[in-house]
Design a protein that fits this description.
With about 325 residues, the chain is α/β, with parallel strands linked by helices. The protein has two domains: about 210 residues, Rossmann fold (3-Layer(aba) Sandwich); about 90 residues, Rossmann fold (3-Layer(aba) Sandwich). The strands form two sheets. A six-stranded mixed sheet has the order 1-2-10-7-8-9, with helices on both faces. Helix 3 packs across helix 4 and helix 3 packs across helix 7. The chain starts with 7 loop residues before the first helix and ends in a 12-residue tail after the last strand. Keywords: Lyase, Pyridoxal phosphate. InterPro entries: TrpB-like_PALP, TrpB-like_PALP_sf. GO terms for molecular function: ATP binding; L-serine ammonia-lyase activity; magnesium ion binding; pyridoxal phosphate binding; serine racemase activity; threonine racemase activity.
Length: about 325
Amino acid sequence: MLTSPPSFSDIKRAHQRIAQYIIETPVMTSKNIDEIAGCHIYFKCENFQKVGAFKMRGAANAIFSYRPEERVNGFACHSSGNHGQAVALAAKLAGSKAFVVMPKNATKVKVEAVKGYDAEVIFCEPNDQSRSQACQDVVDRTGAILIHPFDNYNIIAGQATAAKELIEETDDLDCIIAPVGGGGLAAGTSLIAHYLDPNMEVYLGEPEEVDDCYQSLKAGKIIPNKSSDTIADGLKTTIGQKNFDILKEHVKEVFTVSEQEIVDAMKLIWERMKIVIEPSCAVPFAAILKNPEAFKDKRVGVILTGGNVDLTKLPF
């Protein structure tokens, strides 16, 4: 297992390790969206990934980094949904089992999806402390290996492969933007952008209601979220220390967006591109729409992180 920030070689090895377990998702464009945004956007559609989200990349890399004899007691994690699905499926593919701690208010569609991959679901109170404690209890009870959703260098290396594919599939991106919650994708994206093109600017999008990354980078230390009240359920978690240390070095700016701006951006992609994305996924696009001067006429890569939506509770 990696004990320091992933090198370019680490990310390449991660990509090779997980290739047979993931989909190389398409990069999509829309002239109509470009006209609205005032720039040229290349959407990396991880909503088409296995389990419906980029999380499969990190989970597969972490789990398949362990030898078969190390997998016998299974894997444990805490997750609002997508990471839990990814750990459940990756564990199943590895011939092992998964224990997934989920907040009691997790969306039904994500809970059912985790159970659908034969994982055991354990519910907890919807806060970081309860999630961590419940997960540790599971590890103590079962001997399972903890797969942290973001504060884990193997997870970061796996998540970096989404941006690696995006950069390699497009020519001369000026910048790339991803959403940030715990920071696994954000850290991986910023690292691989730095390795492949040191001149590429890396931006992050974050909900105003859970703007810990914005506040933390401004303060130079981690400022935990005071709230978890956002429609972007995948971004409620406070940034991880390993992730924060990477982001401090490689991120140009974090843009925050309101709940209504997230909903409007989500609706626009549904309407104009005819693809299903979840609210967390819309945050970077909302940031582009809110800050046109930062992206004007640029070639912008956007990670569309997932498409796991409860269709009975659409916000529009």
